[in-house]
Amino acid sequence: MLILTCPYCGVTGEETEFAAGGEAHLKRFGPGSSDAEFESYLFARKNEKGVTFERWRHANGCGKWFHAARCTVTLEVFGTYKAQVTEPPKEILAAIRKRRPGWEPAA
Amino acid sequence: MSTRLATQGRLINRDKRLEFTFNGKRLQGYEGDTLAAALLANDQMLVGRSFKYHRPRGILASGSEEPNALVNLGEGARLEPNQRATTTELFHGLTATSQNHFPSLEFDIGEINNSLARFLPAGFYYKTFIHPRFAWKHVFEPFIRQSAGLGKAPKEADADRYEHFYAFVDVLVIGGGVAGLQAARAAGEAGARVLLIEQEPHWGGRAPVDGAVIEGKPAEDWVKDTLQALEAMENVTLRNRMMGAGVYDHGYALGYERVADHIPGSDLPRHRLWRIRAKQIVTATGAIERPLSFAGNDIPGVMLATAVRDYVVNYGVSPGDRTVVVTNNDDAYRTALCLKRAGLDVPMIVDVRPLVTSPLATEALQAGIRVETGKGIAKVKGRKRVTGVALCLQAGEGSVIEEVKCDAVAMSGGFSPVVHLWSHCGGKLIWDEANAHFRPDPARAPTGAQGEAFVVTAGMASGAMTTGEVLADADAAGKAAARAAGFTPRRFAAPKAAEEPSEPMAPVWMMPQGASYDLRMKMWLDFQNDVKVSDVQLAAREGYESVEHTKRYTTLGMATDQGKLSNINGLAVLADALGEDIPQVGTTTFRPPYTPISMGAIAGEARGEIFQPLRRTPIHGWHEAHGAHWEPVGHWRRPYAYPKAGETVEEAVHREVLNTRRRVGLLDASTLGKIVVKGPDAGRFLDMLYTNMMSTLKVGRCRYGLMCNENGFLSDDGVVARIDEDTWLCHTTSGGADRIHQWMEEWLQTEWWDWKVYVANLTEQYAQIAVVGPDARHVLERLGGMDVSKETLPFMGWQEGKLGGFDARVFRISFSGELSYEIAVPASQGLAFWEALMEVGEAYGMQPYGTEALHIMRAEKGFIMIGDETDGTVIPQDLGLHWAISKKKEDYLGKRAQARSFMDNPDRWQLVGLETLDGSVLPDGCYAIGEGTNANGQAEMFGRVTSTYYSPTLGRGIAMGLVHNGPQRMGEVIRFGTPDKSFVEARIVDPVFYDKEGEKQNV
Amino acid sequence: MSDRAVSPLAGAESSGFAKVSEAGLRGMITLRGDLADAGFAGAVKAVTGCDVPGRREVVEQGGKGVAWMSPDELLVMVPHAEAEAAVAQLSQALAGSHFLAVNVSDARAVFTIEGAGAREVLAKLAPVDLSPEAFGAGQIRRTRLAQVPAAFWLSGEEVFTLVAFRSVAQYVFDLLTVSAKAGSEVGFLAR
Amino acid sequence: MKRYSAFAIAKEALNNHQGWKRAWAKAQPKRKYDVIVVGAGGHGLATAYYLGKNFGIRNVAILEKGWLGGGNTGRNTTIIRSNYLQDPSAAIYEKARSLYETMSQDLNYNVMFSPRGVMMLAQTEHEVRGYKRTAAANAFQGVETEFIGPARVKELCPIMNIEGPRYPVLGALWQPRGGTARHDAVAWGYARACSAMGMDIIQKCEVTGVRSEGGRVVGVDTTKGAIDCDKLAMVVAGHCSHLAEMAGFRLPVESVALQALVSEPIKPCMDVVVMANTVHGYMSQSDKGEMVIGGGTDAFNNYTQRGSFHHIEETVRALVETFPMISRLKMLRQWGGIVDVTGDRSPILSKTPIEGIFVNCGWGTGGFKAIPGSGWGMAELIAKGHSPLTDEFGLNRFTEGRFIDESVAAGVAH
Ligand SMILES: Cc1cc2nc3c(=O)[nH]c(=O)nc-3n(C[C@H](O)[C@H](O)[C@H](O)COP(=O)(O)OP(=O)(O)OC[C@H]3O[C@@H](n4cnc5c(N)ncnc54)[C@H](O)[C@@H]3O)c2cc1C
Ligand SMILES: NC(=O)c1ccc[n+]([C@@H]2O[C@H](COP(=O)([O-])OP(=O)(O)OC[C@H]3O[C@@H](n4cnc5c(N)ncnc54)[C@H](O)[C@@H]3O)[C@@H](O)[C@H]2O)c1
Ligand SMILES: Cc1cc2nc3c(=O)[nH]c(=O)nc-3n(C[C@H](O)[C@H](O)[C@H](O)COP(=O)(O)O)c2cc1C
Ligand SMILES: [Zn+2]
């Protein structure tokens, strides 16, 4: 039963106040994209065993979507950050590396 | 004989007698007794039968580790099977019956399994009952199942109630022995918010029984003083009768509080499940004594040595007059001494260790007890009660040296720290050679939300073995937890305890060491599930080598006690059989709960009316009062129809359709989603969301729209109204309202965050009522206040104003094909508006109609219904909705998906109308069946029915369906298969069955 | 037409170790926009007399109030009969900027929970630290109450105001009533 | 291999059971195999078994990082049914179900297949229609099912409260020859049979790398060293993304925790398996007497074999409503498994971008019931390059937009 902190309203609450929303930083492909691009946008998931970037919504709260960096093996959370970015911010990467020296994001 | 002593009994109140019954026998006990203590006081040692062999079983332990003494507690709506007598507080009027026997506890025919035990080793059922095949289902399995289970299945619904509670603390201390008390004190003194919980109704754990001396005073007094100090601390809460049930990720812990088990029938919740979020958790859960594995160790009268002591000291009950003590450690000498002090006979202490010179041993000798070292028990004599033991050399094969008469045996195989809660969330263990037990490895603690360690252990739970060590460890644990939670511990020293010098224990996993097979198949490891030393050895021999395989093959540790007594002994036997070290073999996984918790407590308050939220429209009460037959729609409940007296539901539906088509009907459409979308980019946004163009909609007009998901599938539909230059109101399906609102927010927040659009879900702000039928306009005109004529309010227009004095927004839209108005008024006025409509409508024969009439009317018109014509695999193109898919737009959600080869293919199942040749109603959901079969031998299917009704308007069955290339096959007759494999023929027709030209709605 | 307007439970009440009441109709407006904008703050002030509250804060005065709902959303509270007018006033004041003001008064049900045990009534249902140290006056918490979303704040020393969706008013009332049942005090928050 | 029978037990009993041989041999990896199967769960073992039995391919190793059967095969709620809606699903699950009927005899290992009947409750009109549709399809897919009314539901399962209060039971989709089996025994029985055919089952052997040359697989690296192979089958359920990553491709799969629990054992009171999808919970009683209970998954990726307690709560809440008598039973143990959920919730049995590598995954919350059918089809796919049982389950369906969506009728897939 995770606890997460919403970067918008600052509430630190238990998982039941939030809704998980899958892999973060997907790039949307629309008309004109190739079959492979489109398929990978919809389906090919990193499904990392380790550090992952994922989406959450503060469903029973302020209603905002945000991102979390979390480890799928230990379930620890390295940090949460706002959704209006296309890649994890530097502080988050630094926070991860602090606990996982040498870690590099998957391609 | 087990009996009540005249002295001792620190936990009972001899002034208060309580009556109870066991198997119908009326018995007496004292306030403060456990059921087990009271049974023993009444010489009821035989309390149940084991699972597999139906062996007679007695009370073995004094706490939650008890495997044998399980009873059916209570009756009827308060029957609870498998209740542990050792943790059941006695109350007046308690009724209990023993389990797993027929016809009675004393004479059980199931005991035949016992004589067949040789033929029923571990895993025997995997090897037999294979032939003949039908026999498994008809003979063997019914037989096995008959003998399954322990307690009685309750028949009635539970009479009690339950609740939850959320608690947030800095430090949760689990276990209220001296370790828990000291840890709580140390953390509390540091200023942390502390919750200390103890499963028993009393505090102090083992120390007061064991005669520990702390800070120069008896443990009992120290406990009292410490409790007083803790109670005085504002920041500390003490809670007994509350078990730490589980430790979960991120410092989440479950506390299982048995609020009213001991006072049944009170109005209190029976159990309260605490959901505790702790920064740090201290487990001070003590240790559990292990049995020894000797032949006949399961015969009633053989008990754990600490349990024997507990019964004497705590309850003033002696399990036997003559008790042989058998041990591999010093602690059991305390039991011998305690029995002796109580005036009971201890004919012998049998100690496996070759030489024992510790102070406790000396004391025993001085007390005149015979101590036999280097010896073991070859076997216990007796069947339903111990009558004696046969003595042998521990090092030998079991030749009997001497027989000793006794009526009880107190055994001790050493102590295993209670590591369950430490392990639940990933805490790791190390093997401690000296004490022959697993203990928590502080370096590999469970980790929390920040990757930090969040569990510390204290006292015997850490593996500390003397009271002095226990207190020092607990003090350090309390301080460490407080520090980790952000507090500065005070520099008080840990309390000191009197020295308890002792001699090292000697691990013994089998008694005697070289026991024969016949002895090994009488040595119980798991008492409840009847797993013996020979079974574990067999599993190892057959290659079930992983401890997890052994567990599953033999069922070791899978009983209601979860192997609290058996696991370590079992894996030691396994390690020995494999020739491996114990730590290499490892333990099985510890899983919550620590001891079983009631389903009622888990469900909490959510039962009956508040099982789930029930959503009600403002008119709900009216529907109820007017006999609505309900249909659940999401969490809403909508009227399906309003049957009148003497009318079936189906008749009511038909009447409602006809009345609406001929005169006028009224529908509560309040559940429809209503989402306002506003901003300079709102038009552009809606163009992305809907397949058709919404930005071009004129203010004052409505347009029907479709939404797809990114996979291209149709997900919702509804009418969109343009309110003003930058505001649109989107209607969604009832089930879709929240989903679509979130869908919009998701795209706005996570993809197009630079677009200026705000959305708000106004679904519940309005009651929405559809007035439908040829007389609809007349009804509204009667109500007055607004011009609803064709000219000012044409089809697919909307306007706002006063209607009958109500603030109303009126949409001229139709889902039935009739002249129809949907009127939104503020929800607070919804009921009044509905009633006003009913009143003026009376003159026109207006009647309410429900969802089924709605469905039939839309089907008569060939309108699709999300969830019927769509099922998450249908794209708008399949439904002939090309007209609602903009060709001009570069993009909309789902567009790219619809260009994939399988979807872009014109060769798909597509929507058509269907008419049976005989006018009958096509069965729900049936498939069009072709002639051939596919590679897997399945009949070819080329279409299916999506909606099918009897049309009261047309007087025959009508249906819609998706058929392979359907629209190109108009007029063709195809066959539909029914579940009974007969066929119905139907013709492919246009899906619009009624008023094709739309004359009725356009008036 | 407020004379025909009824609150979802018509002022139902129950009492146990805390008193639970459905508090009748309240005017409520969902107001979205740029909370940091001076014009926006001015409009809020003009309608309610209150300043824009800080993150997760609520201000109430003279029957009006404002609650912070999210970084771009406020809940503006006025007497029920004034809600439409307040929407109009806000819309006028904010015209030309990007905002949304909608009347949601009737989409809500409002409750009060009063008494020394009020915190514990809520703590049985919401996964929130309700100790006085963690939750005090002036704060608003949006959360989950058993199986539905809700928001609450302290309107007095021992008085909580709780807002939920109208459709589940009965459910919320029943939940609160069971939680407050006399004798089932927990004794954790109020010792 | 020594045959198991009552006679053998009797004989052994007189010999103090000293003569029993290992159920499967202890093996060390050889340098090279024709086929390596990664994952000794039910699907991996069944794949190997049918490779040997149906195609004579016996130079096979099954590599398991832990103990065989210790993945989801050893922790599932054992429901077996085949009343699926879509043709490809109905085909493979029915093939599996029919193989379960004779599995004990085929393997000479009693897997206790118990065709006691499975019912899926319809508690809304929508569900009624969905299940009628399934029954209609099943009739022509060779799957024996029936839509039954509430009275029959009550008769089959007297402990159920069919009157609500919240969601009265309107009927059920009933598969009389669905049921349960002893999950561990399925893995053990296959392992014993594979071993008897000379295959190597290598436990505590984790695959840590996949080697390929020129787009073709050549072998794997393991914690017991490198092993070569001509063909490689990845059958590792929740860990399939991880293995695919080693081989350099991605799968449309996410790994999430699914939980289950058992009550304390009680005397038999429920002869059928009941799934209640509206309220979300399902329950059956094991041959030992525990009520075996399961519910939903966590929505976030997880590799811990633990889930969040609120799912247990939801499930128990639902079942106390459906079966009020369980309120006073106690939860004995709860646990989790990591299941592999695909983009359309249907499994993948497919070739992959690397030649010689095959994947069998995505069974998600419901693959125990499929084990023999999946093994049968997978073996054919590996041996012959295609199989009618697996053809529709290829990876290409995600590119084409050709989904096999089962949720349309039933909502869940267990
Ligand atoms: C709680 C729960 C309840 C369920 N209930 C049902 C049900 O009622 N009915 C039903 O039909 N299905 C059910 N399922 C689903 C079912 O259990 C699975 O679909 C099925 O067991 C999958 O079998 P498998 O052989 O594919 O995977 P597994 O049994 O998980 O086997 C995969 C094996 O691969 C091994 N492995 C992983 N990585 C490596 C590596 N790198 N190297 C070597 N080995 C590796 C693992 O250790 C594991 O043993 C349930 C699942 C769960 C978790
Ligand atoms: N007999 C021996 O050989 C021996 C050796 C060392 C110490 N001792 C005695 O035992 C004492 C050990 O003290 P301790 O506090 O470490 O252990 P303890 O056994 O005295 O106390 C543990 C307490 O935790 C409770 N508990 C266990 N699991 C629980 C759960 N899940 N939830 C709630 N409560 C739970 C138990 O009911 C018990 O009251 C010493 O003071 C000493 O007197 C005995
Ligand atoms: C069908 C089934 C029945 C089970 N019955 C019991 C049981 O009676 N007692 C028990 O302790 N565990 C039982 N378990 C749970 C297992 O002990 C174990 O928790 C589960 O297989 C997961 O393994 P793990 O907990 O070791 O990770 C059962 C599991 C299943 C799948
Ligand atoms: Zn938030």
TrEMBL record, chain A:
GO terms for molecular function: sarcosine oxidase activity. GO terms for biological process: tetrahydrofolate metabolic process. InterPro entries: SoxD, SoxD_sf. It comes from the Bacteria. Signal peptide: none annotated. This is Sarcosine oxidase, delta subunit family. It comes from Pseudoruegeria aquimaris. The lineage of its organism: Bacteria, Pseudomonadati, Pseudomonadota, Alphaproteobacteria, Rhodobacterales.
TrEMBL record, chain B:
One of its GO terms (biological process) is methylation. GO terms for molecular function: aminomethyltransferase activity; methyltransferase activity; sarcosine oxidase activity. The lineage of its organism: Bacteria, Pseudomonadati, Pseudomonadota, Alphaproteobacteria, Rhodobacterales. InterPro entries: 2Fe-2S-bd_N (IPR042204), FAD/NAD-bd_sf (IPR036188), FAD/NAD-binding_dom (IPR023753), GcvT/YgfZ/DmdA (IPR028896), GcvT/YgfZ_C (IPR029043), GcvT_C (IPR013977), GCVT_N (IPR006222), Sarcosine_oxidase_asu (IPR006277). The gene is gcvT_2. Belongs to the GcvT family. Residues 170-421 form the FAD/NAD(P)-binding domain. Residues 619-889 form the GCVT N-terminal domain. It comes from the Bacteria. Signal peptide: none annotated. Residues 522-604 form the SoxA A3 domain. Keywords: Methyltransferase, Oxidoreductase, Transferase. It is an enzyme of class 2 (transferase). This is Aminomethyltransferase. Its EC number is 2.1.2.10. Residues 910-995 form the Aminomethyltransferase C-terminal domain. Pfam families: Fer2_4, GCV_T, GCV_T_C, Pyr_redox_2, SO_alpha_A3.
TrEMBL record, chain C:
InterPro entries: SoxG, TrmE/GcvT-like. SUPFAM superfamilies: Folate-binding domain. This is Sarcosine oxidase, gamma subunit family. It comes from the Bacteria. Transmembrane segments: none annotated. It holds the Pfam family SoxG.
Automatic annotation (TrEMBL), chain D:
It holds the Pfam family DAO. It catalyses: sarcosine + O2 + H2O = formaldehyde + glycine + H2O2; sarcosine + (6S)-5,6,7,8-tetrahydrofolate + O2 = (6R)-5,10-methylene-5,6,7,8-tetrahydrofolate + glycine + H2O2. It is found in: Cytoplasm. Keywords: Cytoplasm, FAD, Flavoprotein, FMN, Nucleotide-binding, Oxidoreductase. One of its GO terms (biological process) is tetrahydrofolate metabolic process. It comes from the Bacteria. Gene3D superfamilies: D-Amino Acid Oxidase, subunit A, domain 2, FAD/NAD(P)-binding domain. GO terms for molecular function: nucleotide binding; sarcosine oxidase activity. Its main location: cytoplasm. Residues 35-79 form the Rhodanese domain. Its EC number is 1.5.3.24. Its cofactor is FAD; FMN. GO terms for cellular component: cytoplasm. Belongs to the SoxB family. PANTHER family: FAD-DEPENDENT OXIDOREDUCTASE DOMAIN-CONTAINING PROTEIN 1 (PTHR13847:SF287), SARCOSINE DEHYDROGENASE-RELATED (PTHR13847). This is Sarcosine oxidase subunit beta. It comes from Pseudoruegeria aquimaris.
